[in-house]
Amino acid sequence: MKKHPLIAREGWGILTASLLVALAATWLLGAWSAPFWLWALFVLQFFRDPARVPPADADAVLAPADGRIVSVEQVRDPYLEREALKISVFMNVFNVHSNRSPVDGVIKGRWYNRGSFVNADLDKASLENERNALWIATERGDVTCVQIAGLVARRILCYVKEGDRLARGQRYGFIRFGSRVDVYLPPDARPEVGLGDKVSATTTILARFA
pTM for this structure? Predict the structure, then answer.
C-alpha cells in the first residue's frame, strides 16, 4: 500500500522556510524567538494531511473537506442550471485543508471564476468569491463540487481536469488559508448532516443518493 504523507506537499516549502527562520531567530534573539516558533507550529498543523479511508457505502456522498456545515438547502445550481440540494462546508485555519472527491465519477466540466474574498462563512461567498467548480458525473446523478476562497485564502489549487476519473476520498486539491467547499447534489438526495455539524473529509457522510 502506498504510504500517505503526513504533511501536504503544498506546505513543504512554507514549513521549511518557517523552521529556518525560527532557527535563525533563536540564534539571534534567544527567548524572543518564541513567536517564530509559534508560527512554525501553526504552519505544521495547517498543512497536516492525514490518510482517510472512505466508508463502504455505494449510496453515500462524502464530505469533501474538514470543517463545519454552514448550509443545507434546496437551491439553483448555478453551474449545471438545475434544482439541487446544496451542502456547504466551512474550513477555518485550524482544519485540514486537503480537498477530496465526495463521489466516484468522471469530470465532465470545470469552471474557474475570479472574485472577491469575503468571509467564506457567509452565503454570498458561494457566488461572489474566487472559486473553482467541478462537474462530476456519477452513476447516480451529477454532482457539482466547488472550492471557494475565503477572507484570508488567496490560492485555490486543483489538480484534475475534464476527462479525469475520481474515486471517493481521492485528493484533488487544496485551499490556503481558511475557505469553503459547496456540494450541489440531485434535489432528491437525502442530507445526513445539519447546520453546525462538524465533518471530516472522506469519513463523514454528507448525504445519500435517493
Answer: 0.83
Whether the CB-CB separation of 11 and 46 falls below 8 Å is answered with: yes
Catalytic residue among 33, 88, 179, 200: 179
Which sign, positive or negative, has the C-alpha torsion 150, 155, 157, 161? Answer: positive
Q: Are the CB atoms for 192 and 208 separated by under 8 Å?
A: yes
pLDDT in tens, 150-202: 766 567 889 999 999 999 999 999 887 668 899 999 999 999 999 999 999 99
- 105 close to 137: Cβ distance less than 8 angstroms: yes
> In the annotation, is 179 catalytic?
yes
Strand intervals (E) in the chain: 60-62, 67-77, 82-91, 98-100, 105-113, 131-138, 141-149, 155-158, 165-166, 171-176, 179-185, 190-191, 198-199, 205-208
Can you tell me the distance from the alpha carbon of 68 to that of 192, in angstroms, rounded to the nearest whole number?
13
Q: What is the CATH number of domain 60-208?
A: 2.70.70.10
**Judging by DSSP bridges, how do beta strands 155-158 and 171-176 pair with one another?**
antiparallel
Q: Which residues of 76-100 are buried (b: 16+ CB within 10 A; e: fewer)?
A: ebbbbeeebbbbbbbbeeebbbbbb
CA angle 83, 87, 88 (to 5 degrees): 125
Which position has the grid cell 462538524? 198
**Residue 57 burial (CB count, 10 A):** 11
